[in-house]
Amino acid sequence: MDQELCAKISVTRPRLTPQLRRVADCLLHNGTHSCFFNARELAAAAGVSPSAVVRFARELGYAGFQSFKDHLQHTVRVRLSASERVSKTVRSLRKSNVLERVFEQDTALIKQTLPLISREKFEQAVREIVRARSLYLIGEKSSFALAYFLYYRMSRLGIRCKLLHFGGSTVFVELADLRKGDVLLAVGFRKIPREVCKAVQLARDKRAATITVTSQPASPLAVADVVLYADRGAEEEIQSVTAAMTLCHALIIAVAAKTKQRSTRMWRDIDALESSLDERKTARV
Q1: Residue 36, exposed/middle/buried by CB under 10 A (0-12, 13-18, 19+)?
Q2: What is the reported pLDDT for 136?
Q3: pTM for the full model?
C-alpha cells in the first residue's frame, strides 16, 4: 500500500466508529497483501460485517469497496526502482541482526502465503502437470531460477519438461509445437516481460492448460487456468522468493506423490547411471 493511502487511513481513523477502526487497522497491518481481499474476506479478517467494509471505503471517499480495491491494486503496480528498494531495505536493517530479521521475515511470508493458495487450484495444477504431454516452463530474472528449479526436479520425476530460453522471438519458436494436452507454467512477479504474458496467451489460444505463479490478482498472469499466489513481501523493498520457492517445492512433492511408481523408477535409473559413472572414474584413477 502506498504511503499516501496509509496516511489517509491513519488521519481518518480517529473519527471512525469502532467497527470501521478495525477495518482501518486490518488494512494498515496487511499492507500490500490487502489487495488480495474481497469485501467478505476483509470483513472476516477485521472481525466486522461486509457492510462495515463498504462504509469504510465510502468514508475514505470511494464510491464503494470495488473502487477502493481497484485503487489498492493500482498502487501495487507502482514500483520503486531497484536501487531505491535496495536502499530502503538496507536502511531498515541493522548490520547486527540481518540474519535473524531475514529469517523472521521469510518465515512470516511463508505463513502469509498459505491462506492465499486455493487447495482446489493447487490440486488442479498437480493433475494438469501429471497428465501433461509436455510441461513448458518460462520465467525471467529471479523467476527464471524458480522455473529452472521446477524443470530440474520435475524432469527427475519423469515429467517431460521443456525450459524456455527467454529472449525475444526465441520463446515463440520454442512454443511452436505447443498444443492441447500440453501445459505451460509461467512464473512472474514484478514488471513481467511482454514475451511471458504473450506466451500465456498463446498457450490459451492453442487450448493448452496454463498455470501461473505470481504475487497478486492485479498481475497480467492472473488470466491463467490455474493461478497460484505467493507473497513476496513489501513492494518497496527487496522482495523474497522464499515463499514462491516453497510453493514450487510443494508442487514437486505433490507430483512425486501422484506419480510414485514412475518417479521411483526414474530415480532408481538415475542413481544407477550416476553410480556407473562414478565407478568408471574410479577405475581410471
Answers
A1: buried
A2: 97
A3: 0.67
